[in-house]
Write a structure and sequence with these properties.
The complex is a heterotrimer of chains A (239), B (201) and C (86). By secondary structure, chain A is α/β, with parallel strands linked by helices. Chain A has two domains: 94 residues, Elongation Factor Tu (Ef-tu), domain 3, CATH 2.40.30; 130 residues, Nucleotide-binding domain of ferredoxin-NADP reductase (FNR) module (Rossmann fold). Chain A is built from five helices and eleven strands, in the order E-E-E-E-E-H-E-E-H-E-H-E-H-E-H-E. Chain B is mainly beta. Chain B has one domain: Oxidoreductase, molybdopterin-binding domain (Sulfite Oxidase, Chain A, domain 2), CATH 3.90.420. Chain C has one domain. Chain C has 86 residues and is mainly beta. In chain C, strands 1-4-5-6-7 form a five-stranded antiparallel beta sheet, with no helix packed on it. The N and C termini of chain C lie far apart (32 Å). The chains are: A alpha/beta (239), B mainly beta (201), C mainly beta (86).
């Protein structure tokens, strides 16, 4: 697996604090939903910084797209969100991570749980599912700070009704008239989202390390098989 | 050759006295957290510090006994082999000269052992003479677990992997015993001013 | 094994592992030399110190240690590894 250079096609805002970065990558070998790329930035004095970003685009999409959350004083995310422009080169390695992937052929039911930008690889899975007109029973639970931070809001609203149930819990502030959850993910919430552990759903949990660990423990406690709960820890928040 | 990212600088501080920055290092303002394993959770009731090995009698201190020892607050620069340096860090701890004061030994080396199983080795002469401490406070506050608390070894004139986090004791040795990173090819000594990062440096 | 919020999954260091292994590394299975548990590499626990460490998610014992250096990698593997051939 070697480093290759892509070219930025577009950088556009996504929700309140993120950017969708669309890349043209010559000879891109294709990817599976859930995989990520490593990005490497090099300053002109040779200093380098490297970070991993989940691929937001579906395998069926024409271009490769990443979603990057802008983190205050995060040296890589600030560059990607504030400085990067169309025509710039971006060095990347991938696709990486056959372990945390889902394809329609893997079947369901499917339970996707994410905190913050942990939704990115799960969105790729949902886009892939939609591209195949799959009706697999899919439940989604997203823990986000505020409604303005929710990524892909309209797109996820369109997924609902195709056998996808999307649930949100807003942990910092709720908009007026909000009737959804407004607390940290807990066992009662997970039980309510389902599906029943006895149906042996494939579970994908992604986001900040502490949230992922807590949710994974809760899910196993509810009866989900540990081997069916796959986690993608993003590490402590840092950019 | 990596492609240059137009406009990328990183978060390095440019305005530092370069005479304080060893070769190949860059200065940071934050305090990166690195470790070889999970952060141990240890109760102070269970914590002990032991000096053993090539001495007549092993010496052990409980936490209460340890923090009652003469301590110093001092400010040093620290340098990590992963290339970041942090200047002017203030610590409080017990000098190894105090701990080794009444120890009669022919040992030429020490091996630090820690909760979680980490080890690192140093020449005896590198941890004495005001060069080494067991530090339990950073910036006037109890040392946070992610930075090695309750207590860590601090030997700032060497790369920071020698400043073992979660230290529980030193074994005095007549023969050197390479530790966790040293057995994987990191330099046995680790002087940042000579850029002793790996075994062939 | 207790969770403590300070690691990522082995899947997260798949790029590094992919430079070492010829086969897809994150789905390779490993049988732990200490506790005998079997897990895919992607589910192991990855820590970053001076170098990179991968640990068994059941017992925490060492699975892989990598010394990071431009131009050279020193890697230690423990346990029994199972690679599916494509």
């Amino acid at each position: 697996m070697t480093w290759r250079v892509g070219t930025v096609v577009e950088v556009r805002p996504e929700a309140a604090r993120s950017r969708m970065i669309v890349l043209d990558v010559p000879d891109w070998p294709g990817h599976l939903a859930g995989q990520h790329v490593d990005l490497r930035l090099t300053a002109d004095d040779g200093y380098q910084a490297q970070r991993s970003y989940s691929i937001a685009s579906a395998p069926e999409d024409q271009s490769l797209a990443l979603t990057v959350e802008r983190i205050d004083d995060g040296e890589v995310s600030l560059y990607l969100c504030d400085e990067l422009r169309p025509g710039d080169p971006l060095e990347l390695r991938g696709p990486i991570g056959g372990y945390f992937t889902w394809q329609v052929a893997d079947g369901g039911p499917l339970l996707l749980v994410a905190g913050g930008s942990g939704v990115v690889p799960l969105a790729a899975m949902l886009r892939h599912r939609a591209a195949h007109n799959s009706g697999i029973d899919t439940r989604v639970l997203l823990s986000v700070g505020t409604w303005d931070d929710v990524l892909y809001r309209d797109e996820f609203a369109r997924f609902e009704g195709d056998g996808v149930a999307v649930h949100y819990t807003l942990t910092r502030a709720t908009p007026g008239g909000w009737s959804g959850w407004s607390r940290r993910v807990d066992a009662e919430m997970l039980r309510s989202v389902g599906p029943e552990p006895g149906t042996r759903p494939q579970v994908f949990v992604c986001g900040p390390t502490l949230l992922v660990e807590r949710v994974a423990d809760l899910l196993v406690g509810l009866g989900h098989e540990p081997g069916l709960v796959k986690t993608e820890r993003f590490g402590p928040t840092g950019g | 050759m990596a492609v240059v990212s137009r406009g990328f600088r990183g978060r390095r501080r440019p305005d530092v006295d370069s005479s304080r920055v060893p070769p190949g290092q860059y200065v940071v303002d934050d305090f990166p957290v690195l470790s070889a394993g999970p952060t141990p959770q240890i109760s102070l009731d269970d914590w002990t510090f032991t000096i053993g090995g090539a001495i007549e009698e092993e010496r052990t201190w409980s936490w209460e006994e340890f923090v009652a020892l003469p301590s110093e607050t001092f400010t040093v620069d620290i340098h990590c082999v992963t290339k970041w340096s942090k200047l002017g860090t203030t610590w409080t701890g017990v000098s190894l000269d105090v701990l080794l004061e009444e120890v009669d030994t022919a040992a030429e080396f020490v091996s630090a052992f820690c909760d979680g199983g980490y080890t690192t080795n140093l020449p005896f002469e590198d941890v004495t003479g005001g060069q080494g401490w067991i530090a339990y406070a950073f910036d006037g506050e109890p040392l946070e677990a992610e930075h090695g608390g309750p207590a860590r070894l601090l030997v700032p004139h060497l790369y920071l992997w020698k400043s073992a986090k979660w230290v529980r004791g030193l074994t005095l040795l007549e023969d050197d015993e390479p530790g966790f990173w040293e057995t994987l090819g990191y330099h046995n000594h680790g002087d940042p001013w000579k850029e002793e990062r790996y075994w062939s440096d | 094994m207790a969770e403590s919020g300070d690691c990522i999954d082995g899947n997260g260091i798949g790029g590094l592992l992919g430079e070492i292994f010829a086969a897809e590394p994150t789905t390779a299975q490993r049988i732990c030399q200490s506790c005998g548990a079997q897990h895919p590499t992607g589910a192991h626990r990855a820590y970053t110190g001076a170098g990179v460490v991968l640990r068994c998610p059941s017992c925490g014992d060492l699975a892989v240690r990598v010394a990071q250096r431009a131009g050279t990698r020193v890697v230690e593997f423990r346990g029994t590894w199972i690679f599916d051939q494509a």
